[in-house]
Each structure stands twice: as structure tokens, then as C-alpha cells.
């Protein structure tokens, strides 16, 4: 696939595509870095980070690697729409890079090995990642202790940005996933969107609360600051500095100003329930 066609297919901003396409990447350099990427993705990332303006270089390489991945999709008879939907993540993260750093490129580069190694696919509204649990996953399910041992094959659910989180759209995604992956593996989601105390901030009919209804909550934690990053686009030590442009921002800021914290929820999707 031609790089220009790929950029068009994922809806990459013209300015970003033009800047990326103007980079002086020789075939020798590309081949050398592609081999490193195939051997050790994170070693490849470390090498690119040494470049000045590394974010635009990262964008260029990820897009070219994605073009190579297109052939694998076709060989496996995976629907072309799934390819475009999955790799549109590059556009979203390029937009985030422009917002956060004032430049086109990719800063969240550690995320994309999943797309390139074909372990993550976007099926409709949601993304589904095939992996093995890297630790024992525990919680309470229907009043009883529940455990998924380390090494168990699972499906990790991600919620990509870009579209409203409509419950009916998510239900269709699960239908696709269950048809494609089956129902033997546990479908798990660890996200701030599943934090139960969001019910104190939002109305029952909000998209986030309706999304929570798709899952059975296994556990909660206060690790990280994902909620604040996603809601406000930044993390501040003093919540008084957060903006209040949306209803969620206003409610979350008030919640935090009262000394409360926003955490995460671990949920399991149980087909047929």
C-alpha cells in the first residue's frame, strides 16, 4: 500500500501527512529500522527517540509499518474496514500530540505494537486485544471470590476516542467480538469509565453510566490519574486549576475539590447477561 493512500484512509490531517512525507528516510535506513522493530519494538522506539523532532519521525515509521501490515490483513482475510478502523488510532493520537505538544507526530508510541502485531482490533465502537494475563486477576463476582490466573488467555477491552460512547453501539461491538473470538475467554475492561463513583457525578441516562451497565464490576482501584487526564486533558496537583467547559468537567472538578478521588473499575463482560 502507498503511504499517501494510507494517510487518506485513516483521515490523517493533510499538514501532518505532508510533513511526514517530506522526511528524508532512505530505503536503507527504513529497512534497518524495520528489522529492529520486528526484533524489539521498544528498542526501535528508543532509537527513534534519539532524533530531533522524534514525534514526527515516529508517525512516519508507524504509518509505513502499518502499510506493511495491510498485506497481512488481506492474507488472513480480515475485513478491510477493520484495518482502517483499527489504524485510525494513529490519527487520534496525532491529534492528541498536536494538542499536547504543539506539533504533529506520535508521542504515545508504546501503544502501537498491539496494532502492528495484530493482537488488537477495532470492531465497531470498541477495541479488543488478545493477550494472556500478566498477573493473577482477582475480584468479587456475584458475591464470590473470582480469580483469573496469570497466563490465562483473555480479551482486553479498550475504548478508543473519537465517537460518542453509545451503549447500543458497544453492544454491537460485543456481538461482533463474540462471533469472531468466541466466548471462552474472559472479556475484561480496566478503565476510569467503570469507576462506580462516577454515578455521583453523572445522570443515570448518561452514556458513561449506560456503558457501565454492560459490565459486572469485579474490583476498583485508585491507581493512576487516567480519569483526570481524560476528563481535563491534563493532571494538576491542585484541582482548582482545572477547566469547566463541559458538564463532566464541572462535576468532576467539584468532586475533586471536595477532597474525593477518581479511580478505576475492573469489569467483566458476561455474554448473554
UniProtKB/TrEMBL annotation:
Residues 1-117 form the N-acyltransferase N-terminal domain. InterPro entries: GNAT_C, NAT_N. Residues 120-268 form the GNAT-like C-terminal domain. Pfam families: GNAT_C, NAT_N. This is Uncharacterized protein.
Amino acid at each position: 500500500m502507498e503511504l499517501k493512500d494510507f494517510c487518506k484512509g485513516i483521515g490523517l490531517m493533510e499538514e501532518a501527512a505532508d510533513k511526514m512525507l517530506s522526511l528524508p528516510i532512505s530505503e536503507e535506513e527504513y529497512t534497518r529500522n524495520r528489522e529492529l522493530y520486528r526484533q524489539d519494538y521498544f528498542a526501535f522506539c528508543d532509537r527513534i527517540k534519539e532524533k530531533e523532532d522524534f514525534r514526527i519521525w515516529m508517525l512516519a515509521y508507524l504509518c509505513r509499518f502499518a502499510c506493511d501490515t495491510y498485506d497481512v490483513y488481506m492474507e488472513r482475510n480480515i475485513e478491510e474496514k477493520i484495518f482502517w478502523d483499527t489504524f485510525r488510532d494513529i490519527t487520534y493520537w496525532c491529534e492528541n500530540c498536536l494538542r499536547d505538544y504543539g506539533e504533529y507526530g506520535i508521542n504515545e508510541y508504546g501503544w502501537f505494537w498491539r496494532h502492528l502485531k495484530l493482537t488488537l482490533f477495532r470492531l465497531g465502537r470498541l477495541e479488543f486485544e488478545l493477550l494472556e494475563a500478566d498477573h493473577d486477576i482477582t475480584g468479587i463476582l456475584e458475591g464470590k471470590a473470582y480469580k483469573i490466573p496469570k497466563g490465562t488467555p483473555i480479551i482486553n477491552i479498550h475504548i478508543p476516542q473519537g465517537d460518542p460512547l453509545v451503549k447500543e453501539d458497544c453492544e454491537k461491538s460485543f456481538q461482533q467480538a463474540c462471533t469472531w473470538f468466541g466466548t471462552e475467554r474472559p472479556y475484561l475492561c480496566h478503565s476510569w469509565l467503570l469507576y462506580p463513583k462516577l454515578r455521583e457525578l453523572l445522570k443515570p441516562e448518561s452514556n458513561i453510566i449506560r456503558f457501565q451497565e454492560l459490565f459486572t464490576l469485579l474490583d476498583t482501584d485508585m491507581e493512576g490519574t487516567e480519569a483526570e487526564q481524560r476528563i481535563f486533558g491534563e493532571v494538576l496537583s491542585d484541582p482548582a486549576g482545572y477547566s469547566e467547559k463541559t458538564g463532566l468537567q464541572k462535576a468532576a472538578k467539584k468532586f475533586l475539590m471536595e477532597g474525593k478521588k477518581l479511580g478505576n473499575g475492573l469489569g467483566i463482560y458476561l455474554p448473554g447477561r
